Amino acid sequence: GSVVASYPYDDSPTHKPTGVYSKSADDEVFKYLAKAYASHHPIMRTGKPNCPGEEGETFQDGITNGAQWYDVEGGMQDYNYVWANCFEITLELSCCKYPPTSELQQEWENNRESLLAFIEKV
């Protein structure tokens, strides 16, 4: 896991494992929606999730193009965008895929304003 808003494309023509910006026709819209979420999240907006084992990983403005972060062939957000004209971003909300129950209230607090801002944009 991480704390970042990722947007299409997740796949790139070269399929390099990382570092290839794979721009969609609606790139600016996707960046706008991802920033709407990230800018209201207290950790995501810093661009420094500080996840164990990935302490040096950073994301400008708390967002990333999926393929630039890491290439995913056949991902759902790309499929939905290409085949269903559905604009979808992926939200990585925690360094831990399954946070303990004791942390869920804090996760809600971290994400509440982001969710509301995102819903307003949609």
UniProtKB/TrEMBL annotation:
SUPFAM superfamilies for this protein: Zn-dependent exopeptidases
Pfam families: Peptidase_M14
This protein's UniProt keywords: Carboxypeptidase, Hydrolase, Protease
Active-site residues, record numbering mapped to chain: E92 (proton donor/acceptor)
Matches recorded under InterPro entries: Peptidase_M14, Peptidase_M14_domain
Any GO molecular function: zinc ion binding
Gene Ontology annotations for the cellular component aspect, listed alphabetically: extracellular space
Domain Peptidase M14 span(s) in chain numbering: 1-122
Origin: domain of life: Eukaryota
GO biological process, one term: protein processing
PROSITE patterns from the UniProt entry: PEPTIDASE_M14
Family assignment from sequence similarity: Belongs to the peptidase M14 family.
Protein name (database record): CBPD Carboxypeptidase
Organism of this sequence: Psophia crepitans
Taxonomic lineage from the root: Eukaryota, Metazoa, Chordata, Craniata, Vertebrata
Gene that produces this protein: Cpd_1
